[in-house]
Amino acid sequence: MFDVNQIRKDFPILDSQVYGKPLVYLDNSATTQKPLCVVEKLTDGYLHHNANVHRGVHFLSQDATDLHEGSRRRMQTFINAASSDEIIFTRGTTESINLVASSFGETFLQDGDEVIVSAMEHHSNIVPWQLFQQRRKIVLKVIPFNDLGELDMDVYAQLFTERTKLVSVTHVSNVLGTVNPVKEIIRIAHSHQVPVLVDGAQSTPHLKVDVQDLDADFLVFSGHKVYGPTGVGVLYGKRQWLEQMVPYQGGGEMIQSVSFEKTTFNELPYKFEAGTPDFISTVGLATAIDYVESIGLGEIAQYEQQLLDYATEQFQQIPGMRIFGQAHHKSAVLSFLVDGIHHYDMGLLLDKMGIAVRTGHHCAQPLMQSLGIEGTVRASFSFYNTMEEVDKLVAGVKRVCGMFGVK
Ligand code: PMP
């Protein structure tokens, strides 16, 4: 049974006071808090299992390697990949997309080729492609979204040409909360023989993601957003692509043999993992996934939906309130502005009441341009938030409105 009060006991930070008030943490899209079991796992790793992986014949190195490779298999089951060889550990979503832009780009993209992204992408799914434009003159095509914050699928279907080589889209928008129909996006792309990268940074913490069911060619996510440690993330890629792609970085681990005349590369997944991996954090991430799945992603999605519905209902009654993102299928993110109140002022004043929200462009400036605004206030929920915390948010927003004379 889902019991939020019991769950909160696993997150010591939620008992914090800020400015003498209980912390109300509503910045979960930026990063999630860590359950005790994850922190204990990291400590245990450094205290009892610390030796460099893959290289050692000694016991401790074997032990660390077993734990690290066990975590890879845990990532495989988490997203239902066909093989653990298709799981590449990276520093996070950003590094994973940079890897694909660089390696897929180098291998498959020529001058004049096209990559489709959407107008609601995080900068980390825009800038890597622009950086690649310094190597090849690729063209970025953009799927627009409608007033509800849903992608225009008719326009999307029209964007394909003979030069389209990749679609790279977010599963869930970190600003609008929209859950994009990625299965349909992939189906359409595949009917043109075009592979798809899914940015799962905001979906993996909230819904069950199954790469084989989606038929995704690449899926990327960050450990720190799924209740795991910072500094580690995943790139899933279908073997057929990863095997053909040139390596991203060079160094130890990713080679089979090196001489000054010729170097041969290691097999998957090591070909893409140059240098010592963060083998302590990968184990912490596996523990986080165990924790999340022990609660159940179905239960999480259901409970967070209740939080979102309740908060949305309350917000709609506040005069001057504008909510950005009203998609039919939406994750627990509430981006808003109140007429006459700058998002930054709203964020600062809520903070003084102990309520942590994010303000600004949320690393999605093109999205802001589409909306014709500079930024929003964003409250993003997790399964450890409560209805009482939603009440505090609503009361806080109303209080700020009162201070600005917006009634
Ligand atoms: N994509 C989306 C949709 C995101 O929300 C974020 C983080 N805000 C990222 C990518 C980047 O993730 P990271 O900073 O962990 O690499």
Which helices and strands occur, and which strands form pairs?
Blueprint (H helix, E strand, L loop, with lengths): L3 H5 L8 E2 L2 E2 L1 E2 L10 H13 L10 H21 L7 E4 L2 H16 L5 E5 L8 H6 L6 E5 L9 H6 L5 E7 L11 H10 L4 E4 L11 H4 L3 E5 L10 E5 L1 H6 L10 E4 L4 E3 L13 H17 L1 H20 L4 E4 L8 E6 L4 H10 L2 E2 L1 E3 L4 H7 L4 E5 L6 H17 L4
Parallel strand pairs: 3-15, 5-6, 5-7, 7-8, 8-9
Antiparallel strand pairs: 1-2, 4-10, 9-10, 11-12, 13-14, 14-17, 16-17
Helix pairs in contact: 2-10, 3-10, 11-14
The structure holds 4'-deoxy-4'-aminopyridoxal-5'-phosphate (PMP).
The site of 4'-deoxy-4'-aminopyridoxal-5'-phosphate has 13 residues, from helix 4.
How would you briefly describe this protein structure?
By secondary structure, the protein is of the alpha/beta class. The protein has 14 helices and 17 strands. The longest helix has 21 residues, at 59-79.
Instruction: Estimate percent helicity.
Output: 25-40%
Beta-strand share of residues: 15-25%
* Cα-based radius of gyration, to the nearest Å: 22 Å
Q: Shape, please?
A: globular
Question: Which CATH-level-2 architecture of the largest domain?
Answer: 3-Layer(aba) Sandwich
Q: Could you give me the name of the CATH homologous superfamily of the largest domain?
A: Type I PLP-dependent aspartate aminotransferase-like (Major domain)
How many E-type strands? Answer: 17
Count of discrete domains: 2
Count helical runs. 14
Largest sheet: 7 strands, mixed
